[in-house]
Amino acid sequence: MAHDQPGAGSSGRQSAAEPNGGTRCSDLTRATDMAQSIGPMPSSPRQVPKAVPHKAGFGLSAEGSCELLGELARMKHYVLFIDRRCCLFAAQRTRSPFDELDEIGTCFGQIDNILKRIPRKRYRLLVDARCGPLRNDPAFESALSQHRGKLLFGFAKNAALAATASGCLQIQRFARIDGRQVLATEDPHAAFRHLGIPYHHLEPFAVPEAGSEPDQGTSTP
User: Fold this and answer.
1) 84 alpha carbon, distance to own chain's centre
2) What's the CATH fold of domain 70-205?
3) Would you say the pTM of this structure is higher than 0.90?
């Protein structure tokens, strides 16, 4: 919005005649000339983008990966992480199975309570199901379909990691049922490229137990 300058225009530049024939500039004219020499003020302040890019040396390793992912909650079936700078929420499946179907509702209810403090629409979701125990019986999938949305729904972008190709297919099948768009992959780097943020190290939290091998079947989300 242009700022009106008092005395601006041709009349503001006229000098007042002195009785002795000389001229004298008024204080108002001098102020106007000074304002015009500075130039017009900006019409409105620029909008600051919500996303805060990484600065060199802040949160990024020498390889360009982000090191700001911190543990938010540790549960029996999931460990939850958050990076508020990258707007990333990550849920990593533990090796603990759902022994009873009632545990599914309890687990996802706890996650839902935690997520109430996080603006999902601004955040990206990564689900790491690589260590999840194999289970795909109808009773389990029916119970899971009732509650998994408490974790999965409402995020700006979604990616999921599975240990095998069959695990990726199961995640994609769940996504089609739920009407969600999610990248399911075995490659962590591909997941972060899809999310549009630097790579985050999740591997230290998903190291297989001594003497065990990753499940070679589908992983429960």
Assistant:
1) 7
2) Transcription Regulator spoIIAA (3.30.750)
3) no
